[in-house]
C-alpha cells in the first residue's frame, strides 16, 4: 500500500485520539491504535487480493468493489434511520 495513504490514515487516527470528545467515547488511545493497525492491515490485504484478481479474473474486481462499498452504504442507511 502506498506510503501516502498510510500517512493519511495515521493522520486521521491521530486526529481521532487528539479530539476532545475522544475521552468520552469509552475508548483509550491503545484501542484506537489497534484499530488503526487493523485498518492498515485490512486495506493492505484487500489491495493484494485486488492486484492478484486483476491478473487472473479481472471481472471479479468490480464485484469486490461493490461488496466493499456496501459496508459503507449500510452504515449510511443505519444513520439515516436513527436520525429520522
List keywords for this structure.
84 residues
Structure description:
By secondary structure, this protein is mainly alpha-helical. The chain is 82% helix and 0% strand. The protein has helices at residues 3-18, 29-56, 59-83. The mean pLDDT is 83.
Give the SSE layout.
Blueprint: H1 3-18, H2 29-56, H3 59-83
How would you spell out the order of helices and strands? HHH
Global shape? elongated
Q: What is the tally of helical segments?
A: 3
Could you give the count of β-strands?
0
Q: How is the quaternary structure best described?
A: single chain
- Assign the structural class, choosing from mainly alpha, mainly beta, alpha/beta, alpha+beta, or little secondary structure: mainly alpha
Q: Averaged pLDDT, please?
A: 83
Give the radius of gyration: 16 Å
Poorly predicted regions are none
Estimate the strand proportion. Answer: under 5%
Give the termini distance in whole angstroms: 38 Å
Helix content: over 70%
Strand count, sense and barrel status of the largest sheet are: none
Short structural description:
The chain is mainly alpha-helical. It has three helices and no strands. The chain starts with a helix and ends with a helix.
Amino acid at each position: 500500500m502506498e506510503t501516502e495513504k498510510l500517512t493519511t490514515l495515521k493522520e486521521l487516527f491521530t486526529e481521532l485520539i487528539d479530539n476532545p470528545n475522544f475521552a468520552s467515547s469509552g475508548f483509550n488511545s491503545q484501542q484506537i491504535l489497534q484499530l488503526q493497525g487493523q485498518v492498515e492491515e485490512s486495506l493492505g490485504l484487500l489491495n493484494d487480493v485486488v492486484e492478484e484478481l486483476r491478473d487472473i479474473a479481472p471481472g471479479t474486481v468490480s464485484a469486490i468493489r461493490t461488496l466493499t462499498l456496501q459496508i459503507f452504504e449500510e452504515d449510511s442507511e443505519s444513520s439515516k434511520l436513527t436520525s429520522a
